[in-house]
Design a protein that fits this description.
With 142 residues, this protein is mainly beta. The chain has a single domain, classed as 60s Ribosomal Protein L30, Chain: A (2-Layer Sandwich). Helices cover 8% and strands 63% of the residues. The protein has one helix and eight strands; from the N terminus they run E-H-E-E-E-E-E-E-E. Strands 1, 2, 3, 4, 5, 6, 7 and 8 form an eight-stranded mixed beta sheet that branches. The structure holds zinc ion. Zinc ion binds next to strand 5. The site of zinc ion (ZN) has 3 residues, from strand 5.
């Protein structure tokens, strides 16, 4: 295990636009606030979504399509850098009209309404680098 130390910086509260893409909108928020490392939560409702399950044997994401209106019961994630740009990694819990939920790695989601709370973390640059063992881009913490 390796780790860096950060201190919480500015806090941002955002209301995302109706019909925005959830992942793109959070990425835009991080870019506009010049956050290079951060953490966030979001709640709201989505018109539809695509989430991923990482198949560890195949080393690739399998899509889970949520082709219906759903509650964004929880969204949690982080902001770091990848290939020199801001990279947002988010996981979601989505629930249907019976309260049944599906969860996974957020690939895309059409916003009905969403509230985001983003916290800046100040400290070393947090870069992602391809990791051959997992097939994922993981934090490159020295
Ligand atoms: Zn993920």
């Amino acid at each position: 295990m390796s780790f860096y130390e950060y201190k919480p910086g500015k806090e941002y509260i955002a209301r995302l636009d109706h019909f925005a893409d959830l992942l793109e909108a959070i990425t835009e928020l991080a870019q506009n606030t010049k956050i290079k490392a951060g953490r966030f939560t979001a709640i709201g409702a989505l018109k539809n979504a695509k989430i991923g399950y990482y198949n560890q044997d195949m080393k690739k994401y399998e899509d889970i399509v949520f082709n219906q209106h759903c509650e964004l019961a929880a969204c949690i994630g982080n902001v770091s850098l990848k290939d020199g740009g801001v990279f947002v990694h988010a996981h979601v819990v989505l629930s249907d009209d019976a309260g049944n939920s599906k969860s996974g790695h957020l690939i895309s989601g059409r916003v009905f309404a969403a509230e985001v709370h983003l916290t800046e973390l100040t400290g070393p640059d947090l870069e992602r680098k391809y990791d051959g063992l997992t097939g994922l881009s993981l934090w490159d913490i020295k």
